[in-house]
Amino acid sequence: MRKVGEAFLNNEATFMNGSAEHTLLESDSYDLVTMASSFHWADTQDALREFDRILNDTGIFAALWNPRLTERSASESKVQELLVKKYNLKSRVWSGLSGITENLRDILTES
What we know:
Layout: H1 2-9, E1 30-36, H2 44-54, E2 55-64, H3 74-87, H4 100-110
Parallel strand pairs: 1-2
């Protein structure tokens, strides 16, 4: 994803090595940290400690998910059907249904 992003943005953005748990960014310096359909891949407690370190006093952490509730959405059902029929897809990982979203309020409150 990074290589595609770098090529697509043609050096209009800075890409840096790091992870949610070890961003290597300056402490108390950022207004916003976001993760979109990816927070479940991090060690949540270590990542939240890192976000607390890099966010300034009024900084915000936002986690976003697309739960892909295929059975409730006609368009999602069509996408799933296409992936199965045309591309012979056997399964998909749906981060929104990984369980973390059910406990996210507790995880964030406890941190």
